[in-house]
Amino acid sequence: MKVIIAGTGAMGATYGSMLKKSGNEVIFLDLWQENIDAINKNGISFKNIGVEETIEGKAYLPSSYNESADLIIVFTKSMQLKEMLNDIRHLISEKTSVLCLLNGLGHIDTLKEFVKPEQILMGVTVLTAGMKGPGIFEVTNYGKTEIQNIVEEGKENALKVVECINNSGLPTVYSEDILFSIWRKACINGTMNACCALLDCNMLQLGKIEKSRELLGKIVEEFAAVAKKEGTTLNVEEITNLVCWFTTEEFQGVKHYPSMHQDLIQKRRLTEIDYLNGYVSRKGKEYGLDTSFCDLITILVHGRESVLIGG
Amino acid sequence: MKVIIAGTGAMGATYGSMLKKSGNEVIFLDLWQENIDAINKNGISFKNIGVEETIEGKAYLPSSYNESADLIIVFTKSMQLKEMLNDIRHLISEKTSVLCLLNGLGHIDTLKEFVKPEQILMGVTVLTAGMKGPGIFEVTNYGKTEIQNIVEEGKENALKVVECINNSGLPTVYSEDILFSIWRKACINGTMNACCALLDCNMLQLGKIEKSRELLGKIVEEFAAVAKKEGTTLNVEEITNLVCWFTTEEFQGVKHYPSMHQDLIQKRRLTEIDYLNGYVSRKGKEYGLDTSFCDLITILVHGRESVLIGG
């Protein structure tokens, strides 16, 4: 299979490297010239579950590459997805599947502006990887990847893509209800990410504040109300139990600072809040739902962005 | 008039010193032994609008003093009011007026547990003072003090107290609607204090965040809804205009960090949130009102307390 990785950060580099090692033709696209140059010169330096590897790679700016592929995997920050899709629209042919594994909500609408529904594949992954510098990456946990077509006509391609990624060594399954998985993961991020960023704390500390369950449960309720309007049923109590479990000692990564905390507090970068609580707040208004907690959380996270980063 | 200052922090020391200088008998009570000792040894060292003064003072622990007074002014942090009233209950005679100038909501209920309604005087002050160390204080702005009895029978005493404080040099007026003034000030504190503490910013920065007016206006709305149930009508738009004005360059103190920011972020102390947004949240539930923004703000401020101070 010919695969284009559209966005060669930690996640893109990991999927691309694994796919390349297992015999696929892989092209890496990125917007960061230093990263492109490093990959072309030195290959992808890859610490793969502790094992050091170097994978030869061809990297380009999207505008400098002109050949289509069977599969494009988009791997940007949520707020850069639209720009990336615009940059690669010349690479999407009739036979190209476009797979989106980004966290967050609202990406299907964005994809539909550039890709026919039968070519869109959505997925969720819990793989964890990091970028150490231009061309230098580390994957610490393969996690599981779930993938599904968004309309029936895409199923055959989805199954092929699942097989291809699975064969590369990354455990991947076909999902019968990817929207549910996307919403469930969004609930986890919309509670852990947003609250830990606002309170400047890790997940264990979040679990220990007064009314922690009330806070997390109310956020999940609001996510579930919007999900329901969009055709996905979430069991509020089950998901609340799940997110609360992430704040207990029982969960190994409990002292982890979620990615939004890392972005906002540690790296002073804009967050993905508009694709989590911000999406629920925006859609809640459209559907006439009360999403006050997500409304306020979104205002406060943008407020922290403004105070810490300016703008 | 014989006056007892129950709580000799910056505010208590200022009112006490001014009352003493103008010929009243003043007793200073406090719970901090070092402060008591410093006052008894060196008097009150007072930087009074730039002028250095020393006022001789007699200071005691509440339990070490046994004589009643015409007026007791309580000047504690909100959360210490109840304990202080309990400590001074033996000093409250039939002829004692008890004046409370604390910020925040809910104090009348606390006062009523210890003092007859006809002896309770409520007030609002915008005087600004600071404590520099044991026995050392500074007042930077006399502001205005408003005072009213909470039941008609207390009016005569209220007028006497207004005259007495006014004669001391602190501009003081009799208020025809002290509840309105208390609620209006609570709106200012419930917006500026809570939001600047949560966002770790000053008032100018608060004014510059996206949806600042929506945020502040929604908080004011919730305060107004509870106030209405308690007999006070607040004009939401007027008060929202007022609080928004505090975040503009036009307001001189705009780069000021409100007291809750100082308490929580700078000094790592517990905040008075339960007497502002927390009161509205609690009472809102009792009255069946939606006070989601105050609910979440209260949870988050207590969350920050837990993260920063432990607990």
UniProtKB/TrEMBL annotation, chains A, B:
Q: Which SUPFAM superfamilies match?
A: 6-phosphogluconate dehydrogenase C-terminal domain-like (SSF48179), NAD(P)-binding Rossmann-fold domains (SSF51735)
| Pfam families attached to this UniProt entry | ApbA, ApbA_C
UniProt EC number: 1.1.1.169
Keywords (A to Z) from UniProt: NADP, Oxidoreductase, Pantothenate biosynthesis
Cellular component aspect of the GO annotation = cytoplasm
Instruction: Provide the leader sequence positions.
Output: none
| Pathway as given in its UniProt record | Cofactor biosynthesis; (R)-pantothenate biosynthesis; (R)-pantoate from 3-methyl-2-oxobutanoate: step 2/2
Q: Does the keyword Oxidoreductase apply?
A: yes
Q: Name one GO molecular function term.
A: 2-dehydropantoate 2-reductase activity
Ketopantoate reductase C-terminal domain residues are: 178-305
A GO BP term, please?
Answer: pantothenate biosynthetic process
- Going by the entry's taxonomy, the superkingdom of the source organism is recorded as Bacteria
Gene3D superfamilies annotated for this entry?
N-(1-d-carboxylethyl)-l-norvaline Dehydrogenase, domain 2, NAD(P)-binding Rossmann-like Domain
Q: What role does this protein play?
A: Catalyzes the NADPH-dependent reduction of ketopantoate into pantoic acid.
Stated family: Belongs to the ketopantoate reductase family.
Its protein name is 2-dehydropantoate 2-reductase
User: From which organism does this entry originate?
Assistant: Streptobacillus felis
